[in-house]
From TrEMBL:
Catalysed reaction equations from the record: Endonucleolytic cleavage to 5'-phosphomonoester
Keyword Nucleus: no
Cited function: Endonuclease that specifically degrades the RNA of RNA-DNA hybrids.
Protein name per the record: Ribonuclease HII
Record-linked Pfam families: RNase_HII
PROSITE patterns reported in the protein's UniProt record: RNASE_H_2 (PS51975)
Family that this chain belongs to: Belongs to the RNase HII family.
Enzyme class: hydrolase
One GO term describing the cellular component: cytoplasm
Record carries keyword RNA-binding: no
E.C. numbers: 3.1.26.4
Keyword field: Cytoplasm, Endonuclease, Hydrolase, Manganese, Metal-binding, Nuclease
CDD domains on file: RNase_HII_bacteria_HII_like
Length: 199
């Protein structure tokens, strides 16, 4: 069972990102503040859940969270500032958008760029430990998946509807055949065997 809070005296926001390791598309991040009585029996790290469970939880989180926000940084900015900085920037933008000001931040992972003067606590695999981080992971993942499914219609031969931009064999094979498109992350050293093609 996930821990509800790291420190019960303060308003906590859990933060997580989705799409950091993808070959294409933006990175998404979410920040979530949960009420003291928040509970859902299925809530867990988004990677441990089915797509159906994630969608169910997305609806539940949005209806029951004290506050939540989702933000994205596109592939062009990722190439410009690097994926780590882009992930942190997306988290910062999500935090900027919260309707409640958090007093402490729980960050999934082992590094974070300080946000304003709010103390933060980095938790490795935190999305499987704290409810607010798990909730953030689900929102980031579901919003990004929906976004990649939209991009799929523009470039269906990469099958982003299925692989969501990750470097699957199918995606890599499509890159070799069709080259890179405008949504690929050029800084990720994924150039195909042939010259890049800009659609």
């Amino acid at each position: 069972m996930l821990k509800t809070f790291y420190h019960e005296e303060f308003i906590e926001a859990g933060c997580d990102e989705a799409g950091r390791g993808c070959y294409a598309g933006p990175v998404f991040a979410a920040a979530v503040i949960l009420p003291k009585n928040f509970y859902h029996p299925v809530l867990n790290d988004s990677k441990q859940l089915s797509a159906v469970q994630r969608e169910e939880l997305k609806t539940y989180i949005e209806a029951n969270a004290s506050a939540y926000a989702v933000a994205m940084i596109d592939n062009l900015e990722i190439d410009n500032i690097n994926i780590l900085k882009a992930s942190f920037k997306a988290m910062h933008i999500a935090l900027d958008t919260l309707t409640i000001n958090p007093e402490i931040l729980l960050i999934d992972g082992n590094r974070f760029t300080k946000y304003k003067k709010i103390p933060h606590h980095c938790v490795i695999k935190g999305d499987g430990i704290y409810a607010s981080i798990a909730a953030a992971s689900i929102l980031a993942k579901t919003y990004r998946d929906a976004y990649m499914e939209q991009l799929h219609h523009e470039f269906p031969h990469y099958n982003w509807k299925q692989n969501k931009g990750y470097g699957t064999l199918e995606h890599r094979t499509a890159i070799d055949e069709f080259g890179l498109c405008k949504y690929h992350r050029k800084s990720f050293n994924i150039e195909p065997n042939q010259l890049s093609i800009e659609f």
